[in-house]
Amino acid sequence: MALHAAWARLDADLSLLGLNLRNFASTKPLASASDFSLLDECLLEGLLSRVWQAWSSFCRTCVIESCMGTTDAAGAAIAAIPGAASEEHVSSAAIRAKRGIAPLWGSTNAILRLEPTWGDVDVLSRIINRLQPANSGKMLAAFSSGYQCAKALQSVRNGAAHSHSQNLGDILKLRSAYLVFPIGHPTQAMFWIEPQSQDFLVTHAIEELRDSGLAAVS
User: Fold this and answer.
1) What are phi and psi of 96, to 5 degrees?
2) Model pLDDT for residues 54-89, shown as the tens digit of each residue
3) Which end of the chain is more exposed for a tag (fewer CB within 10 A), N or C?
4) CB of 123 closer than 8 Å to CB of 98
5) pTM of the prediction?
6) Taken in order 111, 132, 217, 47, is the CA torsion positive or negative?
7) How far is residue 15's CA from residue 207's CA, in Å, rounded to a whole number?
8) What span, in angstroms and rounded, lies between the C-alpha atoms of 85 and 68?
């Protein structure tokens, strides 16, 4: 798959999900925990999960296709890494890279649940640095530009998907970067305000991820 096609799919997914989140926000005030019902929290958890999945899928595609050889958004060729003969070869190499082990291109992995958390920009940086696709510098710079928003989104998503005090603590550490209100459920932090843009945490993050994705494939 050409990298621009991967970004176009990310752009379409984030546009639809962002629209649904803004439509939700337009229906009620979102300034305290009491403004959210149980059904609201369930809806928001689903939307947030879909945002995270779209981002993670895009990051995975960028790395795998870049290692196997592809073209960027301008049509320029990205040379394949010798030995990156299939998606399964890159998957195995990425698993080793996450563990801090040099890639072994002769091995394969076909069990997707063993793969790294592609959307985690810390893990992503480690993998790209070890696998060294021809466009690694461009991808590292692009993913770094959206670092704060990607990590904030991940923290809120983890708190919603795995509800315990430590994940909630990670969300609360974000408070200094946003205009906040006390929350009763992790998904409510999605509507804290990012000061510079005056946008919600989640919709601001979506726009930043969209920009980072475009930079990664350009």
Assistant:
1) -65, -40
2) 999 999 999 999 999 999 999 999 999 999 999 999
3) N
4) yes
5) 0.96
6) positive
7) 9
8) 6
Kind plus residue range of the DSSP H or E element containing 199: strand 199-200
- Residue 200: its H or E element: strand 199-200
- If you count them, how many residues does the chain have? 218
Q: Which residues, in sequence order, are CB contacts of 115 under 8 Å at separation 6+?
A: 60, 91, 94, 95, 109
Find how far residue 99's CA is from the centre of its chain. Answer: 20
Strand ranges inside 47-88, DSSP E: 70-71, 77-78
Residue whose structure tokens are 């930043």? 208
What phi and psi, each to the nearest 5 degrees, are found at residue 37? Answer: -90, 170
So what's the pLDDT on residue 139? 97
Contact 65, 9 (CB under 8 A): no
Q: Is there a contact between 205 and 48 (Cβ–Cβ < 8 Å)?
A: no
Question: Which residues lie below 8 Å from residue 204, measured CB to CB, with a gap of 6+?
Answer: 149, 194, 197
Helix residue ranges per DSSP H, 99-200 = 121-131, 136-145, 147-161, 165-172
Region of residue 75 (phi > 0: left; psi between -120 and 50: alpha; otherwise: beta): left
CA 142 to chain centre: 12
Say if residues 7 and 214 touch (Cβ distance below 8 Å): yes
β-pairing, 199-200 with 70-71?
unpaired
